[in-house]
Design goal:
This protein is an alpha/beta fold. 35% of the residues lie in helices and 20% in strands. The chain has 9 helices and 11 strands.
Amino acid sequence: MRPPFEKREPLELAFGVHAVAELLESGKEINKLLIARERRDDEVKALMLQAREAGVPVQEVPKEKLNTYTRKNHQGVIAFVSPVTYYRLEDVVADCYEHGETPMLVLLDRITDVRNLGAIARSAVCAGAHGLVLPQLNSAQVTGDAIKTSAGALANLPVARVQTIAHAIDYLLESGFTVIAASEHASENYYQLDMTGPLAIVMGSEEDGLSPATLRKASHLARIPITGSVGSLNVSVASGILLFEAVRQRLAAGIADFS
């Protein structure tokens, strides 16, 4: 079992140009960086470049939005410090193989609700998944609320942050993974698919579904047959169904051991 992530306070704000620059230089993980649109000077442009080189998502927003987080002199710059360390996807995959395990990953495509993120992480840990993959933009990030919802699972599950889910799928396909994306419009039921090999399960948002790139690139689209007057399941419930179908198949194949 891999060691848990480094733990920090649930949510920490850093603000001010110099404080955030020092934070970036320290190598601490940052969920995102907010920059006031009104700031166009060279100092802030250099900070934005530094953040992007470090793989930190940068959003330009009205100054009023920054004021909702703090009334102190933020100088138009606020950074949200992550309570966990983000890993490289390549390292998560390599670690699985080094331990002689058949990898199972969960990729979240445009899921922005931290409560769904936490609930999915909890199911992923219970199912023995090896990692969770999040895109830099248009995604919930690991916050104190997400960790609380996950019942602590996010402190013990490797979380990889990638440029886009499409890039992650490309890499995983090249690495021999089967990529199964959940879609209510799929023609195959989830239990008809082989989940015993290296596996990536992609879940989309309840509002927007899967991105067009995911729909094009996935090895299979899988549907969960449902009945009744409600048209879809909560994404965290749907994630659990697919994850534990993978567990069932792997136990039957002698790959997983839950004893």
